Amino acid sequence: MSLSPRQTRTGHIAKGATKKIEDVTLGISMNFSFSITDLKKSIPGAEALASLSGEELLAGVRRVLGDAAKDSVVTVDGDIVTVTPNPVAVANSAEAARLSERAAARARKGELDKAAGIYRRVLELDPTRHDSRRELAMVLVEMGKAAEAVDVLLDVLKVNPLDHQALIILGNHYAREKRDLVTATRFFERAAEVAPDDPVVQNSIAAMLFEQKKPDEALARFNRVLELNPRFAHALYGKSMVLMTEGRFADAIACLDQLFHDGDLAMPGSSRCLAPPATITGSSPTSSPTTRRARPLRWLKTSRLRPSRSRDSRSWSRRRNSMGPCAR
Question: If we measure between CA atoms, which residue out of 176, 148, 136, 164 comes closest to residue 42?
Fold first, then answer.
């Protein structure tokens, strides 16, 4: 497992209750450290910690963390919280790593039920694998179990409030499923605070601004995305949508032309949002690149500029990171 600067993993000798030498097993211990300030910014309801101190603060932190700190030692030193879970046996850690790869493979094949079951087993073996916890949340979203996915993602943020990927996923959940753009924007803005140069974050905010009928702000954000990555397909498409609604049809056509000629059409989710319905599910896989580029341009002139809502058989690896207006 890759560790953030706020996480440390060390060899640890965990003794059984009898303290006999034969009961000694080699385990792996991981500490998660983060600031209360970050926790308050990322977790809804954690703002109440601001008025607490001493033992009340420690108790309040434990309440906020909930099951994320189960079977763990929690300490508070000034603004810094440290969570130390029980050590994980080396064998369990190795098996969890192996199963995590298997779960990812199942998810890529669209076998979501199996993937979810394997990820749950991973977390039974090694509860500190919060990357697998985030992946489980993505599987649950795809399975339509949004409420459970939200709980899992919040557990991820409780031990790493700077996990901007979890913040993005939560933002998308509130935008798409709840149609709660205020809460969605809060999560996206927090993700942007954590990772300001992530084009996916900036694109998500641009999409929210467009949904909120703030075209000037949305356009500025889409331009920011394209400064970070000039080939970012979702931003090129989103920018064309803004230009179209503003009546700037020539600019919208030029933006789409840039997209189809220079955009990264291989990025996750691009094919679904960049083509009209006929080219999403009914086009021939052997059609030429010229035909694939020209067809959407002809469609633009005769149809409303909107992404299709049809569901195709795209693999997990292409769907999992789709963001912004194109992912809707």
Answer: 164
- Could you give the angle at which helices 164-176 and 130-142 cross, rounded to 10 degrees? 20
Q: Residue 117: which domain range?
A: 90-158
Q: Which of 133, 158, 183 is the last residue of a domain?
A: 158
Q: Which amino acid is at 7?
A: Q
Q: What are the φ and ψ backbone dihedral angles of 43, each rounded to 5 degrees?
A: -110, 120
Give Cβ neighbours of residue 71 (< 8 Å, ≥ 6 apart): 85, 86, 127
- Write down the residue that tokens 């909107």 correspond to: 306
Mean pLDDT by 10 residues, the chain (328 residues): 42 30 54 93 92 94 92 93 92 94 95 96 93 93 90 93 93 86 90 95 92 94 96 94 95 94 74 41 34 38 35 38 44
31 and 76 assigned to the same domain = yes
Question: CA 323: distance to chain centroid?
Answer: 9
